[in-house]
From TrEMBL:
Record domain Major facilitator superfamily (MFS) profile: where: 27-514
Highest taxon of source: Bacteria
Protein's recorded name: MFS transporter
Organism: Streptomyces durmitorensis
Biased composition (Basic and acidic residues): 521-538
Amino acid sequence: MSGSTTATAPSGRRVPGSQGGANRWLVLVVLCVSLLLVAVDATVLHVAVPAVTEDLKPGGIELLWIVDVYPLVCASLLILFGTLGDRIGRRRVLLLGYALFGVASAVAAMADNAQVLIAARALLGVGGAMIMPATLSILRQVFPDRRERAVAIGVWSAVAGIGAAGGPLLGGFLLEHFWWGSVFLINIPLMLVSLPIGRLLLPESTGDRDGPWDVVGALMAAGGLFGLVFAVKRAGGGESPFGMTTLLSFFLGTALLVGFVRRQRRRKHPLIDLSMFSRPAFSTSLGCIVLAMLALVGLELVAAQYLQLVLGLSPLETGMRLVPLTVAAMVAGLAGSKFLHRFGPRTMVASGFTLTAVAVVVLTGMGDQLNDPLMITSFVLLGLGLQTTLFGSYESMLSEAPQSQAGGAAAIGETSYQLGAGIGIALLGSVMNAAYAPGLSSVQGVPAKESAAASHSLGEAYEVASGLGGGAGEALRSAARESFVHGLHVTLLVSAGLLLLGALMALKLPRTMECGAASQDQDRDQDQDQDHEPKPDADAGIPAPRDGAGVRVESSVR
């Protein structure tokens, strides 16, 4: 059976769904509020880390887990909850995610030690993994017409950009007026409103319910992604990529994911229809998402350090500098459907990559002095290009997936996003360190031990310089600042190269946007349903033949 939609609410009245009507835009508003909370929560804690450190006194490992456990758990469980939503109902999983997110936010806000905060952040990751794929799969169902769906995805992706960019800005504002727990407490009233409204407005839908849900496969996917993302985050956090823990985590995660793929290929009713990856538009879209995030998330981390440590801006001032990027991303998201229909996915995504690369190259003009006109120009181009790229990639990926696999497809897209972000931090962080460290190897008047410590990061270099004092301290501070700017320029150029590689990859996307997607999706789902059923011999009217071992031979065309 293909994906089904519940047409009535528990009370028997009709709910807005894929049958059209103005209420589907109210559904979009509810879904966007959900996504906004999850996106904000992924970045809002970054500016609160100093306050958390001062209050809870976490150790180095505990502080790392406080920051990383949310995206780590969220990325690991996306496929599990995305496919579970296809099975038991996407709205049901979304509402459970709301409830868990609200409870975990309250626990995090009131945490009085690092262990409680880590556990609460992990629960937030579970809630986020329930919410994120559900929002995109419900959107896929509520907007069956591809033109309208493109508009909805444009709004959805713009909200995602607002959340990610607005997290540090909101966090900086709250920290100036309240205690660090307020960055979590703001989630609770929004979730209390979202739960009843979501139950009232959101339609229920499921995917393919044939056969049992593959619990073992879901756990293999979760374990494999946890190991892989954990290894990537350790490498991006400055740990040696060849350390025992990192290598063991990487190989164990990879082995579990390979086992998951092999298991799905053998099962009659797999969690994820792997034939989706054989569709060029689907696999290419995922590759574009990974490359876009790989090139830009690591860059964002470096840029945040540049704005605060080199230019001396406060967290709030840093957030304000990102406002032009956010506004540009909103404009690109809202206008994306028109450009997609006019130019097609191939031209749109390739142009988005190219524009983003241009913006990154322009940023190499930044030095150790604030240049607001250059920065604003670059950030506007960056917002336009990045949002255009991600919008076109997500829309193409989601439109290629059958409706019955919408939850799994959305989870795969979000997992690609998370993996690209983690790899980007690791890769570009390594590039930055390789370009930064040599400049501090022979600073006049600075002992070798202090030079080695200063080469770890700009923040550590400032601490060492303060300890040295005098002329040697000032010379170290100046050399560290110059080396960091040089490393930033090298990192920007590497990012530009990755973005141009993405533009070449985008040339594999379809040239034009095929509309009338509602009927096409239904036909495709029906074809897939028939592919999984035993097919009789059309001419002789007898069952399909068996091979020499007595095994039934099924015709399966994908």
